[in-house]
Structure prediction request, 215 residues.
Amino acid sequence: MFRAWSDLSGPVRVVDQGDLRLLVAGADTLSAVPLSGDWKRIEREYWGRALDLAAIHPSPAALFVGTGGGTQALLLAARTRPRSVTMVERDPVIIRVAQRYFGLGRLHRAEFLCGDIEQVLPWLESAGRRFDFIMEDAVYAHAAEYALPITLRLAELLAAGGVFVANRHARHHARETEVALRRSFAHVTSRRVRPDGENVLICATREDRPRAGSA
Prediction:
């Protein structure tokens, strides 16, 4: 139902298949949302599984890195009452499509930061931003020497009681990510989304005292 070209992502398409609206960039499906509002099917995929890993604040300040069409942000809003939602996406074409065709423009207190995460991170750190939930889905299959430092810096943006989840490819430093997070967090778990699949979700929870500057 929609096609565009992005210099960063290549061909970008919005495709309706039955009850699902899909955001496809190149050959990859970045996001899916139900046209009927019934999230049951989406909840069985990694977008929903990531929100099931730990108890999330009932009114969270949330950060999504690698937003795509915003499936997880919308699903979080269907489950909780976010007091703020910050979305980092490097491709401005993807942001425009997500706002127009996937409903992100209607999210309350939504903030869109366009740029690579290594460009956005210093600003979040210097501003003292803290989040109750962070989903990192931007360095899924990058080299470990690039991905691990970003993961650890993002995890430091958690507020007390916060939940950090990283989506990793089973063959691309999923184990290394889990080990690295265990050095800073007492509670770290990992779960393969499907027994025969490649998505591994790694969850770390912070239980120390509150830090100043909560988002």
Notes: The two ends are 37 Å apart (CA to CA). The CA atoms of residues 62 and 191 lie 21 Å apart.
